[in-house]
Amino acid sequence: MAARVVPVDRNTRPSAMPILVGMGITLKNLVVTVLGQIGLGKKAAATVSFPEEKRATSRRYRGVHILTQREDGSPKCVACYMCATVCPAECIFIEAGERPEKDIEKYPTRFEIDLLRCVYCGFCVDACPEEAIIMSRENDLVGTTRAELIIDRDRLMDRAKVGEYGDGYRPIDHDARRPVRIAALERLRTEHGIVPGMPKRD
Amino acid sequence: MPKCTIDGKEIEVAPGTTVIQAALQMGKEVPHFCWHPDLPVDGNCRMCLVEVEKAPKLQIACNTVITDGMVVHTESEKAKQAHRTTLEFLLVNHPIDCPVCDQAGECYLQDQYMEHGLHDGKTVPEQKVKKRKVVDLGPIMLDAERCVLCSRCLRFEANVTGTNSFEFVNRGDHTQISTYEGRPIAHNYAGNLADVCPVGALLSHDFRFKMRVWFLEATESVCSGCSTGCNIFIDHRDGEVQRLRPRRNVEVNKSWMCDIGRLEYKEIALESRLDAARGRAGGDWQPLALDAALDLLAERLREAGAASAFLATPQATNEDLFAFRALAAQLGGKLDFRVGNPQDKVQVRVDDVLLRADRNPNTQGCIDLGLGQAGVDRILADCASGAVKALLLQGPELLLEPGAAEALARVPFVAVMATHERPELALAHLVLPATVWAEGDGTFTNYQRRVQRIRRAVPAPGAAAPRWEMAARVLRRLGGSFEATSTREAFALLTRAVADYAGLDYRVLAAGGRVLAPGQAGATQEARA
């Protein structure tokens, strides 16, 4: 089948018309925005006066992480490394230690996230079996050195600043999604013969 | 030879083969917990049920011997249903604390749930039977709640070590394993308990919480702890060895290794590792670039000529030894390796399982290469009388010998290849940083005269170099030739020069090594010329 050829004439004659149309749009937007800003129109400016003003974010916004706590203030995290495993940016560093409680056993003695490497995908939140890591809506993190933006366990657990932004992405619907995940695994196995897990031992 | 059909494929097996073994020979794994290739069959977990035609009920694959004409289905609907049901029973009281369990990632329960189960649990955690958790048994941590009561550990203790530390206590779903009065495991093979345990009931104390196993990369190697030469995996991540674990070789170590060998990895990343060469300049140590150090060594050896002496180490690989021998031969210096007489201990067992009295991995290689020539006493006497002008040590053994210091003090130039900093190195004039076994390729010859390969798992610190390479570089500086740029080529040179090793190459040795034909050590002496 022959390809369809569409001739395009690039040698149009210069004219003032397109410029006038463009300036018309700019003028219209200027009038509408100014009227909106002073309360005479419906449409306001798209820009906000950051940092005095902050843009509203969705409830599922994926900002800087939060490590949640137990009632006694210790981290809910059990250092299972699921987040570090799933992290596509490999920005999570965990070191596990022993907890005295025999039914918990394990907790992170170090938990660091390199926010400069993080791509804010939220996979860590999805992977966490304990809802120990969630995300806030904090999105205006600044630092003067790289080291400053590798944040440690205590800063991840310090929730003082969170109220300002509100909670972001968290796995409220994990249980609802379980049948979907099992169906996906089943499909992987039946259609592609893939069973996730470790390679066979001898 | 009985012939049978497993899942539609016909296979002929040796008489006495069980269904589970026959399936494995076909590359098919029947799900199981209690069966282990190196332990007697127990048949208690009921996970390996398979459908055998003309049999009224499902049979356990681990204890059903193949008979001629048997037709087995391991994946029929009936068999799959049995796997699911058994798994569900095993999981009824399992705590499912995978997030904090070190076995996660290499756990039979996890793997088989993903492959055969995927059912929803019918119990809630509060209803589960509570058992003892976090019990410290010395080298092992016991968590009785995770146990599936497969009795592998009991059978290991009964049949391999003969120590019988474990017993089942209580009855019904309150059954759990325990040691008598909670006593710790006291023998040298405790690490294997964590390996045989299919779930997270018995875990290594040393590896506890250190690393999730799926981050680890495994390199096949051989333990350097004694002359047995157990086959192992070096599990490492980001250039750091995290643990050693046995690799099955029925003719050497079956599936086991001892705890002494298992902890050998700790020496690799010690602070005291040498990462740069250094030489004495008027009494004080001066750091040297490796090339400059080798220049100095070559110069001193050339000056000494036949008045040089060489001491090899049974810690080195065959390639190291061969290059070292070539260097000694180039100058006509005296050569030996028998510091502390390891050659007498190669065959001596310490216990009835694996460990041997000779704590060097390659004493047999030294014997085979004919390195025992001059006699250590003779070399020391020559040192004391001033007849030795330059002494090159492949390892620090001689420096540690009591009484050697006096003789060494009379040698004008002592060079030593060492892996770790130690005070005795003060006796030397030149220190060359050498790699340890996990940092290089090569071969060891064990007590059976089995030549086995070791492989590089982690990078060497700083300027540390393999011993064969340093010897070859000095040899070239002295006008000799050593036509090898890799251990593979060095081994090829060795096989041409040493009659017993003729015909071997790395490819032949890859799986499980190769036992040399019984020859006499004298035969290699002749080939040396």
Largest sheet composition of chain B: 7 strands, mixed
Rg of chain B (CA only): 27 Å
Helix content of chain A: 25-40%
How big is the Rg of chain A? 26 Å
Report low-confidence residues of chain B grouped into runs of 5 or more.
Answer: 521-529
- The best one-word shape of chain A is extended
CATH architectural name of the largest domain in chain B: 3-Layer(aba) Sandwich
Q: How many angstroms separate the termini of chain B?
A: 50 Å
CATH topology value of the largest domain in chain B: Rossmann fold
Q: Give, in spatial order, the strands making up the sheet with the most strands of chain B.
A: 15-14-20-19-18-16-17
Largest sheet: number of strands, sense, barrel closure of chain A: 3 strands, antiparallel
Tally of alpha and pi helices of chain A: 6
What's the number of domains of chain B? 3
User: How much beta of chain B, percentage-wise?
Assistant: 15-25%
Overall geometry of chain B comes to: elongated
Count of DSSP E strands of chain B?
A: 23
CATH architecture of one domain in chain A: 2-Layer Sandwich
In the CATH hierarchy, the third-tier topology of one domain in chain A is known as Alpha-Beta Plaits
Fold topology:
The complex is a heterodimer of chains A (202) and B (529).
Chain A: H1 17-37, E1 65-67, H2 82-86, E2 92-98, E3 106-114, H3 123-127, E4 133-135, E5 150-151, H4 153-157, H5 162-165, H6 174-192
Antiparallel strand pairs in A: 1-4, 2-3, 3-5
Chain B: E1 3-6, E2 9-12, H1 19-25, E3 49-52, E4 59-60, E5 70-73, H2 77-92, H3 108-117, E6 135-137, E7 140-142, H4 152-161, E8 166-169, E9 176-179, H5 191-196, E10 202-204, E11 217-222, E12 231-237, E13 240-246, H6 259-262, E14 277-281, E15 284-288, H7 290-304, E16 308-311, H8 318-331, E17 334-336, H9 363-368, H10 376-385, E18 390-393, H11 397-400, H12 404-408, E19 413-418, E20 430-433, E21 442-445, E22 450-454, H13 467-477, H14 487-497, H15 506-509, E23 514-515, H16 521-528
